Amino acid sequence: MSIKEAPSITATISRRRSRSRINIRWSSMGYVLLGVILVVIFATPYIWMIGSTFKPREEIFRYVSPLSWRTFVPLNPTPDNLRTLFIDLDFSRPLLNSLGVSIASVIFSLTVSSMVAFVLAWIEFPGRRFVFGAILVTLLIVFEAKIVPLFLIMQQLGLQNTYISIFIPWLTDAFFVFLFYQHFKKLPQELMEAATIDGCSYFRAYWNVMLPNIGPALISAAFIKFIFSWDSYIWPLITITDESKQVVS
């Protein structure tokens, strides 16, 4: 190869690299545009809902079709709807009930489920696999099949019409046990061995060593559990008869 041919080869490589960068740039812009469109589509009902909160009643559905900026922006903003909701209907009470029950459900469910998963993943005992399999089988049982037994148990324990009765059926969750079990099993054996050598009990090894290493799984489970508890409708309606203890759903 002559010295004169080297610049042309370099120029060709540079052109190819620039074209590659342009293609990547256009591809990235396409993904961003698609993401923005999807966000707008999914956010539209919520934007309308928030805007309608501050509209007079006669204005809420006036500009629904065709869609325009008037559909989402209140022309005559008023706090009357919020005043009716929180003062006349006392919506703050069920809102606080739902918040408290959901937070308690998250704390207790994640604590118990992660403990069960840790025991099944790291502590050897006879019948461990059978217990794990039995827990997974409960995922096949629909909640409607458990309503009557749960109601009778709550009644016999004297827990009916209490906040505890709302979340105690989900004190542990088979799905979360399975999720945490898989994450615990992925942790290196050396972590448990080091904790044992340092004199940690099983609880200290669980709490101080193993649990912090599955933080992402805990955060994901917390969000899922909170949403599930917040949206729960049938069971709170059955077990709670006192209106002051009713939840939002």
Key descriptive features of the protein:
12 helices, about 250 residues, extended
What does this protein look like?
By secondary structure, this protein is an all-alpha fold. The chain folds into 2 domains: 5-85; 90-245, MetI-like fold. It has 12 helices and no strands. The protein has helices at 5-53, 69-72, 80-88, 92-122, 128-137, 147-157, 164-167, 174-186, 189-197, 202-210, 215-231, 234-239. Helix 4 crosses helix 8 and helix 4 (92-122) crosses helix 11 (215-231). It is extended and about 70 Å long.
Question: What's the layout of helices and strands?
Answer:
Blueprint: H1 5-53, H2 69-72, H3 80-88, H4 92-122, H5 128-137, H6 147-157, H7 164-167, H8 174-186, H9 189-197, H10 202-210, H11 215-231, H12 234-239
Number of helices: 12
Percentage of residues in helical conformation: 55-70%
Please state the structural category.
mainly alpha
Instruction: State the CATH class of the largest domain.
Output: Mainly Alpha
Order of helices and strands: HHHHHHHHHHHH
Fourth-level CATH superfamily of the largest domain? MetI-like
- CATH architecture grouping of the largest domain: Orthogonal Bundle
pLDDT averaged over residues: 84
CATH fold name of the largest domain, please? MetI-like fold
Main beta sheet: strand number and arrangement? Answer: none
Number of domains: 2
**Whole-angstrom Rg:** 28 Å
User: What's the oligomerization state?
Assistant: single chain
**What is the molecular shape?**
extended
Distance between the termini: 78 Å
User: Which band does the percent of strand residues land in?
Assistant: under 5%
Number of strands: 0
Poorly predicted parts: none
